[in-house]
Amino acid sequence: MRAYSKTLVLSTFFFILLLLYFFARRDALLKAEQNGGSLRDVRSAVTFHPPLLRDTQQETRRRQKLTKILSGSKKITRKHPKQFSMSISHKGPMHLALVACRNHLEEALTMMKSALLFSNRKIMFHIFTEESIKLMFETRLKQWLDPLSSKFQYIIREITFSIKDAEEWKKIFQPCAAQHLFLPVVLKDVDSLLYVDTDVLFLRPVEDIWSFLNMFNDTQLAGMTLEHEIPNRIFDHHSIKGIAGINSGVMLMNLTRIRSAVFKNSLIPNGVEWKDLLNHFYEKYKNYITWKDQDMLNIIFHDNPEYLYKLPCQWNYRPQHCMYGSNCKGAEEEGVSILHGNNGVYYDDKQPAFKAVYEAIHGYTIEENMFQSLLYPLQTKFLDTVNTLCGRIPQIFLKQIEKTLKKVYEQRVVIHLGHLQY
Ligand SMILES: *[C@@H]1O[C@H](CO)[C@@H](O)[C@H](O)[C@H]1NC(C)=O
Ligand SMILES: *[C@@H]1O[C@H](CO)[C@@H](O)[C@H](O)[C@H]1NC(C)=O
């Protein structure tokens, strides 16, 4: 009898606890909805139906699935909360360098916005630019600092070639294009750096490409993608000595290693350090005025292949990966991670799929609802591109954004619940 009443008391106790928990959670959800509004925002965003893509049934199913995931708090709370900690990572900042000249201010800011949209780790931007647009940069970035001060810092610098014939260099190479060759020398105190062209857009967190630094073996010091997935196929003016070559629009660099490495080359048998290498190159190639910075990198890594980490093509996805048919398997499988709209495709009508992504991110204002003001307009824009070779499979472009937004949403819910005391 005593054992029986003990059990009764215990189970009543647990029942009451369960009830309390249930009500507390319901309250919490309601409160979260009223408080920050983000939960409500996203819910109303989910019930907003833009014109459907592709097959209606399939799209409806997809949307139902998304709605289920977004409203199914059960699923979210079952997961380990740590996994979704929305707070900015306490690890040191990731360093991102860009070189923006003349009319590339707007494009550069759009690239930076894309980097900030999806990342959870602080970013330090090193902006190299001309005196004439410095002030405009400053004004625009200050507007972002208010909502995003925990997410980024920036330094604006002038174009700097730390080399003895700096003025000569500037005459021969386009100063803006050649700047990134000097980054290991100019940014003396930075250990690792991601350099990107301004016509690049991040479709997933910057920390994802940053983590490739840990995958470098003992000799690798820079990560880049190949210029062509299928060597020597269509345009080969970039390749040198018959190598397919690398594209320098996205360069992940361990600067510490670049500064201390010795580079073999045909000019000096024993090899030289990076900073001297640039001088030698200048002496040897100053008459080949059509050469570009990318050609120089191609020569360097052709002579020192063990220094190069080959990034998969979805980390520097360009029109040539789809305009003659798809030739980037990685993008088909997991979607584009970094989009690179080179040759001006964001501004003409040659590649509407690239333009659609640029315009969606460009038109998004920080702090707006990301589903309503970014994802859905983007999905709608893709309707106009399905007849082009690049827009044929919208998922190649949309997969990573959808994945990231889903994660951001889940993090918000957990944070809201986490703030409430039961
Ligand atoms: C870069 O390389 C140096 C020297 O090998 C190493 O100490 C450092 O941790 C590396 N940085 C990153 C981010 O991996
Ligand atoms: C690192 O990888 C590159 C490319 O695969 C290779 O050439 C090099 O020998 C590797 N280095 C080490 C130390 O294993």
UniProtKB/TrEMBL annotation:
The UniProt record lists the keyword Iron: no
Xref: Gene3D superfamilies: Spore Coat Polysaccharide Biosynthesis Protein SpsA, Chain A
GO molecular function: UDP-D-xylose:beta-D-glucoside alpha-1,3-D-xylosyltransferase activity
Keyword Signal attached: no
Keywords, ordered alphabetically: Glycoprotein, Glycosyltransferase, Membrane, Signal-anchor, Transferase, Transmembrane, Transmembrane helix
Catalytic activity: 3-O-(beta-D-glucosyl)-L-seryl-[EGF-like domain protein] + UDP-alpha-D-xylose = 3-O-[alpha-D-xylosyl-(1->3)-beta-D-glucosyl]-L-seryl-[EGF-like domain protein] + UDP + H(+)
UniProt similarity note: Belongs to the glycosyltransferase 8 family.
Name of the protein in question: UDP-D-xylose:beta-D-glucoside alpha-1,3-D-xylosyltransferase
The organism of origin for this protein: Erpetoichthys calabaricus
Gene from which this protein is expressed: GXYLT2
